Amino acid sequence: MEQRAARWIEGRRDVLLICHHSPDGDALGSLLGLGLALERLPAGPEKQVHLVCADPIPEEARHLPGWERVITPESPAWSARAGWLSADPGRSAVISVDCSSPDRLGQAYDTGLWAGVPLLNIDHHPTNTCFGQLNWVEPKAAATAQILVGLIHAMNVPLDVDLATCLLHGILTDTRGFRTSNTSPDVLRTAVELMDHGAPFAALNDLIFNRRPLAAIQLWSQALQRMALRGRILSSEITQEIRQKTRYDIEGSAGLVSYLNTANEADIAVVFDERSDGTVGVSMRAVPGFDVSRVAVSLGGGGHAQAAGCTLSGSLAEVKARVLALLHETWESQAAPQL
Known about the structure:
- The protein is of the alpha/beta class.
- It has helices at 2-10, 25-39, 111-114, 144-154, 161-174, 185-196, 201-209, 214-224, 240-246, 254-260, 293-298, 316-338; strands at 14-19, 48-52, 92-97, 119-123, 134-137, 228-230, 233-238, 268-274, 279-286, 302-303, 307-313.
- The chain is built from 12 helices and 11 strands.
- The chain starts with a helix and ends with a helix.
- The model has no long low-confidence stretch (mean pLDDT 92).
């Protein structure tokens, strides 16, 4: 598949790269890493490459090379999007990275302008809906960034420190520092290769897992007071009141839900993130042996067995009741054989 995707890309002159909204480290590392690689192709037409995301780059990811080039719908450059891609489908391409379904592209994907442009979907989520004209989905890969290392080799682009840093950032994020069950010898070998090309393993590990804004810690302190353990499911919530009080307005709760998932008394952790647009973000984590992706998929979301999520319309109370009921059902169906 590496060679097929490489040939498909190399003939395009105008390329739009896009990742999912509320981007995590794998989405951003993949977006930036592939963007750098496309600009360094050794042969073929010079490319016009645009990096797009529906949401701003989180402050904690602004150490990555090229992060300031990512365009959001709020960016001044967004108004020029009609001229980014040619009307000729043989010349233009959209490439989505780390995105399991088209709705996850959010407002950054302008269907009115780009619906007719061929789309290459590169992802590792087992819940991917294969929404592209060309789909490269590797569920066994630990991260989309791992897949892209193979693509970059197929395009004959040499790795350098910037490329390696972006891609290792993605791998470290999605393996939680090589602690997830899909950490394989292959992904470890890929990480070593990226380190050999200058990726700063220790510094990235520290930035990803040990550093966060004070406002985020204050938000955690408020949310932790709202924890509730019911059976083996531990939940918490981030309300709009908490966000306003702590002045931390970055959407997402991956760090908090992963922290809750460390509790010995719980098999599943879930955090409900109340948003200003009337929706609630739901982030779920599970210990090995339990699968929360089936709940996420049933609610229109996606993810992995041990890390999944979705976004639902409704009040915080309504969404909590609905999701917790499903989580208890799935816990019982999965725990019964073990008991």
